[in-house]
Q: What sequence folds into this?
């Protein structure tokens, strides 16, 4: 079920809206009664677009109400009509500007100031010179004295989960490894062979997901890739500590025309070795075997 907050958020999307010629407007077209005063249709529109249309369905039509009088009658029938002093955020405030007993206008309550005896409302079809037929959407502070009363939609909290569902959630245990998943999905069979114990991952899912996208377990690598990886790892491990000093010395002893391509080659080599060291040694306490043992199950979740 939608909330008052969602309805107000929808209403605020339209602040500053201005109707077209002959009172052509979005809210009247939506309701099916265009080119007419549209303050109530604006309220009904916001309720429906925020998912709260059911709370005013049948007030006048299936979409809500286009007449303030119909809106008041609906809330009174539902015993949801209150004096302005009891107004709450999300209420529909109905106005009587000249105190003649006739409803003139309606808006959605967004704030209440009991000390100043004012409420703040978002209203359709209003402006500073014509409160009830001004053609724009505005948010304004209004005095209690011009408000007949407020209608309150039957806002409800999100439904609570059933006791059965809650019990299942308590009993369920998180599956952290492939072995544990298999144990949950299939019954344990009696066998003379020792059962394989589930091994807790030595690295978190966040760490596993932070591996490079092109990382593959050793079993999935081709022979030449394995050989190249071993070679580069040994090379990276033995030369990375001396790479920058060596590069600096080398660049000062070569012709200028050779310095640029050599610097580029050294830069590529530095990047490659850094990438390899990041892949294979970034976790410190882990071996490549540890990474491979957990990589497949995590990759399936992506």
A:
């Amino acid at each position: 079920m939608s909330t008052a907050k969602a309805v107000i958020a929808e209403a605020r999307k339209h602040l500053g809206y201005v109707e077209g010629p002959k009172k052509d407007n979005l809210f009247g077209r939506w309701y099916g009664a265009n080119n007419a005063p549209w303050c109530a249709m604006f309220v009904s529109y916001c309720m429906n677009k925020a998912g709260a249309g059911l709370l005013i369905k049948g007030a006048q039509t299936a979409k809500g109400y286009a007449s303030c009088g119909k809106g008041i009658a609906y809330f009174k029938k539902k015993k949801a009509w209150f004096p302005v002093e009891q107004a709450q955020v999300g209420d529909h405030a109905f106005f009587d500007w000249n105190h003649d007993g006739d409803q003139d206008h309606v808006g959605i309550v967004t704030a209440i100031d009991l000390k100043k005896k004012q409420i703040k409302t978002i209203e359709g079809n209003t402006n500073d010179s014509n409160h009830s037929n001004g053609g724009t959407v505005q948010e304004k502070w209004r005095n209690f004295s011009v408000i007949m009363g407020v209608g309150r939609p039957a806002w409800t909290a999100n439904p609570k989960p059933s006791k059965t569902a809650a019990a299942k959630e308590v009993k369920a245990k998180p599956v952290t490894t492939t072995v544990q998943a298999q144990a949950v999905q299939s019954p344990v069979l009696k066998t003379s062979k020792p059962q394989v114990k589930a091994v807790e991952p030595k690295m978190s899912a966040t760490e596993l997901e932070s591996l490079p996208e092109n990382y593959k377990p050793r079993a999935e690598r081709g022979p030449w890739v394995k050989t190249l990886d071993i070679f580069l790892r040994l090379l990276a491990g033995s030369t990375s500590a001396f790479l920058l000093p060596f590069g600096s010395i080398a660049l000062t002893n070569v012709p200028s025309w050779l310095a640029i391509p050599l610097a580029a080659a050294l830069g590529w080599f530095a990047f490659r070795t850094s990438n390899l060291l990041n892949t294979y040694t970034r976790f410190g306490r882990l071996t490549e075997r540890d990474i491979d043992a957990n990589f497949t199950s995590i990759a399936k979740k992506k």
Q: What stands out?
A: The two ends are 32 Å apart (CA to CA). The chain has a mean pLDDT of 76. The domain at 4-151 is CATH 2.30.30.140 (SH3 type barrels.).
